[in-house]
Amino acid sequence: MKYLCVIGFLVLLGIAEANGAGECGRNSPDMEAMKLIPCAEAASDENTSVSKRCCLQIQKLGQNPKCLSAVMLSNTAS
After folding, report:
1. Is 66 exposed, middle or buried (0-12, 13-18, 19+ CB in 10 A)?
2. Burial of 61 from C-beta contacts in 10 A (0-12 / 13-18 / 19+)
3. What is the pLDDT of residue 32?
4. What is the pLDDT of residues 16-55, one digit of tens each?
5. Residues 39, 50: contact at Cβ < 8 Å?
6. In angstroms, what is the C-alpha Rg of the chain?
7. What is the pLDDT of residue 2?
8. Which residues, 6 or more positions from 64, have their beta carbon under 8 angstroms from its beta carbon?
9. Which residues have a Cβ under 8 Å from the Cβ of 28 and sit 6 or more positions away?
10. Are the C-beta atoms of residues 8 and 56 closer than 8 Å to each other?
11. Helix (H, G, I), strand (E, B), or coil: what is residue 49?
12. Which of 12, 18, 28, 78 matches a 20 to 30 Å C-alpha distance to 44?
């Protein structure tokens, strides 16, 4: 019975991955990177203050370190 549960879990995990549930859930890291547009000005000019919208997006991404890492490595972020 224990093996059947493990196999069932692995099958469900595989289905979730096949349905696009990656590091950032259903959204791709590139789509999540687009949410960081409010941070662009502060990232390119050290004299610009960081907006509250930028901080909120970073906080959301920071709750999922795997997604944050994937976003930072995405083509959009670079």
Report:
1. exposed
2. buried
3. 93
4. 444 456 889 999 999 999 999 999 898 889 899 999 999 9
5. yes
6. 17
7. 52
8. 23, 24
9. 22, 74
10. no
11. coil
12. 28
